[in-house]
Amino acid sequence: MELDSNNHSVFLLNYHLVLVIKYRRKVIDNNISSRLKEIFEYICPKYNITLDEWNHDKDHVHLLFRGSPNTDISKFINAYKSASSRLIKKEYPIVKKQLWKEYFWSRSYCLITTGGVPIDIVRKYIENQGMK
């Protein structure tokens, strides 16, 4: 097990995040997923977050990422959802037509710390998303 560190602490903070499209609309394809991932990776450094795994199904994305003790997870998630929603609707107009109103993401999300499960099991779960 490899630990992260900063000036004053050693830590390992893994999170499994699931973000769902509003009304479970099936709008995510490989291109949109890749763009969503790019946006995530662009925002990550500003919040001391490192992406470890990414995958999607047609109506949601799964992420495995690491944070640090000073990471404000809720602010990061809100910033990501806001920026990605705006950019995806602008860059993929077809998506906007498939959604009701202006919403891309559901207001809710699932965030789980992965301390109780070996990280390899979570990683495999995310890798296997969308393979039904």
Please give a structural write-up.
- The protein has four helices and six strands.
- The protein is α+β, with helices and mostly antiparallel strands and 132 residues long.
- It has one domain: Transposase IS200-like (Alpha-Beta Plaits, 2-Layer Sandwich), CATH 3.30.70.1290.
- Strand 4 and strand 5 form a beta hairpin.
- Helix 1 packs across helix 2.
- The protein is globular, with a radius of gyration of 15 Å.
- The mean pLDDT is 91.
- This is Transposase.
Summarize the structure.
It comes from Inconstantimicrobium mannanitabidum. By secondary structure, this protein is of the alpha+beta class.
How does the SSE layout of this entry go?
Blueprint: E1 4-5, E2 10-11, E3 13-21, H1 30-43, E4 50-56, E5 60-67, H2 73-91, H3 93-98, E6 105-113, H4 119-127
Antiparallel strand pairs: 1-2, 3-5, 3-6, 4-5
Helix pairs in contact: 1-2
